[in-house]
Design a protein that fits this description.
Elements: E1 2-7, E2 17-21, H1 22-35, H2 37-40, E3 53-54, H3 56-71, H4 74-87, E4 92-93, E5 102-104, E6 110-113, E7 122-123, H5 134-147, E8 150-152
Antiparallel strand pairs: 1-2, 1-8, 3-8, 4-7, 5-6
Helix pairs in contact: 3-5
């Protein structure tokens, strides 16, 4: 699953369409909400694909704010802090084998090492699947500048 973001009145091809899979969209949207709550408040549903979005003025303001934060190093610092926090998250018990490391058959008997966790009983914290880097934000800014408003679908 992903988010398809369509420009309402694009002024160039870069403003027609922006896509991120769910692993890339969530942290990008969270960054926007943290960096510009006064602007992003006009879009109520950043984390669903129900067609919500920003008008042309809001998109342009968000692009301007994000560009300033890229230029002054704030985005790079945010990504670095985020990555460090994610790296510190502890592993979680494997949901497939309930942390036993053994896969169970239909009768509930241990059958073989769990393939999900390679028999370890633990797996990477789920939040570590979500990624963000500065280039994602730069690409988003290019889209925002040229989209004429957008809808998240």
């Amino acid at each position: 699953m992903g988010m398809d973001v369509f420009g309402r009145k694009p002024t160039s091809p870069e403003g027609e369409y922006f896509r991120r899979n769910v692993w890339g969209w969530r942290p990008l949207a969270q960054l926007c909400e943290c960096a510009a709550p006064d602007i992003t408040a006009d879009c109520e549903h950043w984390h669903s694909n129900d067609g919500d979005g920003l008008d042309a003025s809001g998109a342009a303001k968000l692009a301007e704010r994000l560009q300033l934060l890229i230029a002054d190093g704030s985005v790079a610092a945010y990504v670095k802090r985020r990555d460090a926090a994610l790296a510190q998250l502890p592993d979680e018990p494997c949901g497939c084998c309930d942390g036993t490391g053994m896969r169970r058959d239909a009768t509930g008997n241990d059958k073989a090492p769990c393939r999900q966790c390679d028999g370890k009983g633990k797996q990477q914290n789920f939040d570590r699947h979500y990624h963000l880097d500065e280039d994602d934000v730069k690409e988003w800014v290019v889209f925002l500048r040229a989209c004429g408003g957008f809808d998240i679908c």
